[in-house]
Structure formats: structure tokens, C-alpha cells
Specification:
CATH superfamily of the largest domain: Type I PLP-dependent aspartate aminotransferase-like (Major domain)
CATH topology of the largest domain: Aspartate Aminotransferase, domain 2
Oligomer: single chain
Structural class: alpha/beta
Distance between the termini: 23 Å
Radius of gyration: 21 Å
Shape: globular
Strand order of the largest sheet: 4-10-9-8-7-5-6
Length: 300
């Protein structure tokens, strides 16, 4: 059966629903019309997100890098923020960007970008795992590979070409698998057919997968089957901002079974990652959290 192709009119209808969602976040909504072209969609989205950010800045002028005002409610949209010094101890409560039932649970730390999340995580792994092979699939995101090659001196990059089982059967050495959204389908599927019992950590970059993606669910179940500690990293400046570049935001979610504790390795890695984010100045900004998360329009 051939692939379904969305018509231009259907696309514009869908984007109009997204524009109405953005507009509904404003205390003073703008006059809104159904877009007639892709150009009009882009223009309207940037205008609306700029208006949301401006309104937010005006209304939350007490929200500064340090907590000093009793007027600051610590909320924006569905998110609640707590900190004394934002760069060092920001805590965020709010809806998950992932759409799963009670099968899994996770602790999430937010960063100023997707690269800030994976950088803090991989550098923090030196304190928990020590020297290790970092197994990557072909076509892995270029900057992630550059990070490993140039700055993660404790990691040796190993590009897999369909031989994950063979690599895992080699001499005793710690191993991290970096599973990336850019990986070819064949290599991705071959990984999920492999036995992962010898992996010490799975780092799964979910950036271009929808929050409810079946592929994410399959990866988590594969990791659970082989008891692999798992961290999902993500750039939210892509799908989660409805293509509007609302704000630079990234995250690292430390995943474990809902019925079990995360385990000491994952706990230690979470603690070290928080330290790395603090020391590198990579914490998220409150103003970059989309206020419309949890209210995605029907058909998105």
C-alpha cells in the first residue's frame, strides 16, 4: 500500500489548529485567520510565539536568576519552578513531553538545549562508568559524534555496522550505546533484535520522534528486557515547539520501570549530570518552557 500524502488544504487546516492553540495562550489574543500558504503559517507562528514570550516577560518581571520576590508565583503555563539560584538548583514540575502510561517512570532534568543535555550526561558518565566504549550507529547526529571525539576523553567511539552482538561479546570493557533518531531504519531495527545484556548504559536521543512514538516505547521495552540503565535526551526546539522555535530547551530523562527503584548506577548518573549542568552553566530558562504543552490540538 502506498504512503499517505497529506493535501495542502489538510495541512493548512492542521496548522490553523496549531495557530489557534498558540493564540489561546495569550491574555489578549491576536486577530487570527486561516493561513493560505506555508509562508503565512511560518509568519503567524513566529508572531504568536514572540507575543507569548513578550507577555510572559511583562507579567513575570520578578522571575530573575535568583529568587528574591514574594510576588513570583513560580508558574508558567502547566509548569511550576522552584530554585534559589536558577543556574544551580532549578527544579521543574509539569507534564511530561512523553506520552506513556504507568509502564515506566523517569526523573527529568532540563537544560538550555539538546546538546547541553547530552554533553552534561556523557561527561558525567566519566565519574560513574569510567573509561568505556561508546557504540554508535551510522548517521548518528554529527555534533554528538564531535562531542565524543573532541571532549569525552574517557570514551572511545565505535561505529557499529550491524555487529552489536559481536561487539558485546568482546573483552570485558564498559559499553555505552548511543541510539540516535538519525540512525537508518535497518540499523535501528537490527539493534532491537540484539541481546543487550552487556550494555552498561543506553543513551537514546528522541529528538525527532513524537512524544507518543511507538519506536520510543519499543526501545524502552528492549532496554527493560536486558536491564539496561536508560537515559533519553531530547531537544525540545523541534517537535515540541510546534515548529515555532519557542525557546531553546533540552532534557535528559532517567528512565526506569514504574514498579522498581532506578538503581544506584542511574541514581549516581542523575546526580553527576545535575552537577555537570550546574558547573557548565547549562540549566534551562523558565521562559523557554512552552505554555501549551499538554494541550496539543486534535490532529496534531
Amino acid at each position: 500500500m502506498g504512503a499517505w500524502v497529506e493535501s495542502t488544504e489538510s495541512y493548512l487546516d492542521r496548522k490553523y489548529e496549531e495557530l489557534k492553540l498558540l493564540n489561546g495562550c495569550l491574555r489578549r489574543p491576536l486577530s487570527l485567520f486561516r493561513p493560505r500558504s506555508i509562508g503565512e503559517v511560518i509568519k503567524s507562528k513566529f508572531q504568536l510565539t514572540a507575543s507569548i514570550r513578550a507577555e510572559h516577560e511583562i507579567e513575570t518581571w520578578t522571575a530573575t536568576e535568583t529568587t528574591w520576590s514574594s510576588l513570583d508565583r513560580g508558574r508558567f503555563g502547566p509548569f511550576h519552578f522552584k530554585y534559589d539560584y536558577q543556574r544551580a538548583d532549578l527544579e521543574v514540575e509539569g507534564p511530561s513531553f512523553y506520552e506513556f502510561s504507568g509502564e515506566f517512570t523517569w526523573d527529568t532534568v532540563y537544560t538550555g538545549s539538546g546538546m547541553a543535555a547530552i554533553s552534561a550526561l556523557l561527561l558525567a558518565s566519566a565519574h560513574v562508568l569510567g573509561r568505556a566504549d561508546d557504540l554508535v550507529l551510522p548517521s548518528t547526529y554529527g555534533e554528538s559524534l564531535e562531542l565524543i571525539d573532541r571532549y569525552a576523553g574517557h570514551l572511545r567511539k565505535v561505529v557499529l555496522k550491524g555487529e552489536l552482538d559481536k561487539r558485546l561479546a568482546e573483552a570485558d570493557i564498559r559499553r555505552i550505546l548511543l541510539l540516535d533518531f538519525c540512525a537508518p531504519d535497518g540499523a535501528f531495527e537490527a539493534t532491537l533484535r540484539s541481546a543487550g545484556r552487556s550494555l552498561d548504559l543506553l543513551v537514546f536521543d528522541t529528538t525527532c520522534f513524537a512524544g507518543g512514538s511507538g519506536r520510543i516505547r519499543r526501545v524502552l521495552r528492549w532496554a527493560r528486557q536486558w536491564s539496561i540503565p536508560t537515559v533519553m535526551v531530547r531537544s525540545h526546539n523541534k517537535l515540541d515547539s510546534l515548529g515555532a522555535e519557542y525557546g531553546r530547551l533540552g532534557s535528559a530523562s532517567f528512565v526506569h520501570r514504574a514498579s522498581a527503584a532506578p538503581g544506584p548506577k542511574l541514581d549516581d548518573l542523575l546526580s553527576e549530570t545535575r552537577n555537570a549542568i550546574r558547573l557548565f552553566g547549562g540549566a534551562a530558562l523558565r521562559a523557554h518552557f512552552p505554555p501549551y504543552i499538554g494541550a496539543i490540538p486534535t490532529g496534531h
